Amino acid sequence: SIGLEEEEEEEEEEEEEEEEEEEKKMEEEEEEEEKEEEKEEEEEEGKEGGN
Question: Region (Disordered): which ranges (predicted)?
């Protein structure tokens, strides 16, 4: 029974690590999207200012 408990704990730790990595990926992707949006907005403003 001790071996099973240890295995379960290890699995839980691995799952938590995977979830943390997923969250980091999501956050990085959101930051990238925000940067892209800012770039597009700046380009739009540049076009409008040029008229």
Answer: 1-51
Residue 35 lies in a domain: yes
Domain count, the chain: 1
In DSSP notation, 11-44 reads HHHHHHHHHHHHHHHHHHHHHHHHHHHHHHHHHH
Helix (H), strand (E) at residue 1? none
- Amino acid (one-letter) located at 37: E
Q: What is the pLDDT along the chain (51 residues), one digit of tens a residue?
A: 678 899 999 999 999 999 999 999 999 999 999 999 999 999 999 887 655
> CA triplet 35, 19, 3: central angle to 5 degrees?
160
0.85 exceeded by the pTM?
A: no
Per this entry, what is the length of the chain? 51
